[in-house]
Amino acid sequence: xxxxxxxLLILFVLSGCAHVISKDLRVKADPSLTFxxxxxxxxxxxxxxxxxxxxxxxxxxxxxxxxxxxxxxLPLSRRGEPNETYPSEGRFLMLTEKYLDPYLFKRGRKITVxxxxxxxxxxxxxxxxxxxxxxSSNQIHLWTEYYYYPxxxxxxxxxxxxxxxxxxxxxxxxxxxxYRR
Length: 181
Fold this sequence. Notes:
- There is one protein chain.
- By secondary structure, the protein is mainly beta.
- 13% of the residues lie in helices and 36% in strands.
- The protein is built from 3 helices and 7 strands, in the order H-H-H-E-E-E-E-E-E-E.
- It has helices at 5-15, 23-28, 35-40; strands spanning 49-61, 67-74, 91-96, 110-125, 128-142, 161-164, 176-179.
- The strands form 2 sheets. A 5-stranded mixed beta barrel has the order 1-2-3-5-4.
- It is globular.
């Protein structure tokens, strides 16, 4: 059992770094094809497989049972997660043949999609017509939402406040500052 421990530890660590899109689809996708190239002329790249991601802008369930999702494109990390630190190059539409609940696929959620380029679709964006690249979805990964809570506010030090290192004993350690009058 001792001989297996390092192997299992490495396997456990590396499993958290796996890409969210299946290997079959990643092999079919053309990594040299950038979003900017496709955005210039989507019809020229029809039938090509791409892996794109970003933040959901809006989800539209259509009468024929399909769902159209407008996505604000963001570059992907090595795992396939949309990276907010780099600028977007535009928006695209993803079409799926099934119903997707707009409560789950809501505005602001991160999404990664592997799909085939179908061409382009022109829709209104504000008061202008916007030409979206349109892809069909072969695999979708909806990223988990994280909630960030602000850290508590710590008061300034001496002379108006004093420090009490024993606050919270015996129920937990903490720091608190008391106001001196």
